[in-house]
């Protein structure tokens, strides 16, 4: 049977709407944290509640499909396979969510043969929804929680700034995240790359136009898809951080690069991701090469 991507997209959007409501209304105990890997890698009751909700709805609607979620992931056991798979980060940007810093979202992806086919990313605090279906374009909706006619805007096609030239790193607005793993090779690499991106050319740096750390991998990718951020780079991403945004980015003409990106197997995929906005294949390649040069030998 062929898989109806539009129906999947619509289901994921309906789920995102419910999840957004839960995130917006969370108070008190729902914001208390439990440590996962370390003191900055945390989970709240709300993360778990939303993942359970997403899982139960999708298992009912699509009982034969696989489900991978950040909070139910078991290292070495949970795998993204070639099967039809939903990939869920119930709250991406958990630290922002806890603090009330308004950059957090639910990220829902669907993959076939490990390739992203549908992506839905919703930030209930800015009330902006990003979504895409493979081959059908990428869109953004403002005031998403309001009913149509009450303010919910028409979907706007991404990118929103198609005219601006994609230059080199020197003129780029670059997103970079530190993630929650604060030791090991990827952490050292992030510090080195950060230093290069911010240091002046006189001191051997690359000095990017601007550097931002928003605290949500999925939103970094969506802003890159929207064309308001030129590049986003991170070492140490998981499938749920990137699957949904990847579909949105590609449908907006952007490009995802990295070391074996999308194999999703930590043994092979070094989990480095470089998202570059739309702006010409040659220009995209040039920026990716500049990034590899920054990482060389590190
Ligand atoms: C994290 C955020 C953060 C990124 C990490 C992610 P979480 O997701 O997206 O910005 O640097 O790599 O794990 O834990 O808030 O869902």
Secondary structure: number of strands: 14
Distance between the termini: 47 Å
Report the major sheet. Answer: 7 strands, mixed
Mean pLDDT: 92
Bound ligand species: D-MYO-inositol-1-phosphate
Oligomer: single chain
Number of helices, where a helix is a run of at least 4 consecutive DSSP H or I residues:
7
Low-confidence stretches: none
How is the CATH topology of the largest domain named? Fructose-1,6-Bisphosphatase, Chain A, domain 1
Q: Which CATH architecture of the largest domain?
A: 2-Layer Sandwich
- Name of the level-1 CATH class of the largest domain: Alpha Beta
Helical content stands at: 25-40%
Radius of gyration: 18 Å
How does this structure look, described?
This protein is α+β, with helices and mostly antiparallel strands and 298 residues long. It has 2 domains: 5-157, Fructose-1,6-Bisphosphatase, subunit A, domain 1 (Fructose-1,6-Bisphosphatase, Chain A, domain 1), CATH 3.30.540; 169-295, D-Maltodextrin-Binding Protein, domain 2 (3-Layer(aba) Sandwich). Helices cover 33% and strands 23% of the residues. It has 7 helices and 14 strands. The chain has a 7-stranded mixed beta sheet with strand order 3-4-5-6-7-8-9, sandwiched between helices. A 5-stranded mixed beta sheet has the order 11-10-12-14-13, sandwiched between helices. A two-stranded antiparallel ribbon has the order 1-2. Strand 7 (128-133) and strand 8 (138-141) form a beta hairpin. Helix 1 packs antiparallel against helix 2 (45-61) and helix 5 packs parallel to helix 6. The radius of gyration is 18 Å and the shape is globular. The termini are far apart. The structure holds D-MYO-inositol-1-phosphate. D-MYO-inositol-1-phosphate binds at residues 70, 89, 91-94, 177, 179-180, 215-217, 234, 236-237, 241.
């Amino acid at each position: 049977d062929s898989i109806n991507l539009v129906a999947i997209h619509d289901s994921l959007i309906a789920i995102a709407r419910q999840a957004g409501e839960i995130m917006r209304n969370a108070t008190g105990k729902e914001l208390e944290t439990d440590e996962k890997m370390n003191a900055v890698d945390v989970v709240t009751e709300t993360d778990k509640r939303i993942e359970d909700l997403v899982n139960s709805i999708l298992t009912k609607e699509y009982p034969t499909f696989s489900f991978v979620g950040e909070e139910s992931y078991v290292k070495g056991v949970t795998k993204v396979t070639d099967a039809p798979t939903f990939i869920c980060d119930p709250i991406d940007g958990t630290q922002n969510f806890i603090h009330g810093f308004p950059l957090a979202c639910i990220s829902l992806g669907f993959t076939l043969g490990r390739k992203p086919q549908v992506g839905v990313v919703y930030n209930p605090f800015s009330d902006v929804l990003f979504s895409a279906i493979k081959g059908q374009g990428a869109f953004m909706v403002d005031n998403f929680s309001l009913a149509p006619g009450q303010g919910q805007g028409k979907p706007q096609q991404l990118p929103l700034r198609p005219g601006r030239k994609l230059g080199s790193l020197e003129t780029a607005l670059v997103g970079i995240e530190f993630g929650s793993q604060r030791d090991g090779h990827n952490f050292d690499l992030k510090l080195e790359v950060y230093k290069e991106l911010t240091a002046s050319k006189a001191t051997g740096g690359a000095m990017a136009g601007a550097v931002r750390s928003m605290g949500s991998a999925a939103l970094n990718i969506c802003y890159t898809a929207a064309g308001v951020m030129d590049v986003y780079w991170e070492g140490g991403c998981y499938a749920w951080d990137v699957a949904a945004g990847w579909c949105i980015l590609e449908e907006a003409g952007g490009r995802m690069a990295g070391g074996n990106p999308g194999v999703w197997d930590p043994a092979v995929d070094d989990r480095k991701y470089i998202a570059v906005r739309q702006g010409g294949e040659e220009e995209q390649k040039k920026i990716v090469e500049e990034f590899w040069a920054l990482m060389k030998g590190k």
